[in-house]
Amino acid sequence: MKAMLDYYKSKVLSRMQDSIKMGYNLNHEEVCEYVFLDYTYFPDKYDGSNPPKISFVMKMRTGSDKTENDCSKPFTELMDYFLKNYYELYLKRSS
Questions:
Q1: How many distinct structural domains can be found in the chain?
Q2: 17-24 contacts, C-beta under 8 A, 24 or more apart
Q3: pTM listed for this prediction
Q4: Residue 21: which domain range?
């Protein structure tokens, strides 16, 4: 079971990496080249109100870095929504 959970945790991060990069690049002139991210919180037991949390750093084509704190509130809320939904999707697959 632990191996399956680790697999799904990595799949969620992979999906989020793509979503952050694509979401940012669709809405900004500055281009994001790569996204580094990791969990800041991952629930031991999910009750529907405690989804995981991530932090991320986007590497921009210009060489600068942007974190989730540099993004607009609507963008970070959308990424939180994606994270919760990806997580719930993988939870359903694992049960």
A1: 1
A2: 19/79, 19/82, 20/56, 20/58, 20/79, 21/58, 23/75, 23/78, 23/79, 24/58, 24/71, 24/75
A3: 0.91
A4: 2-94
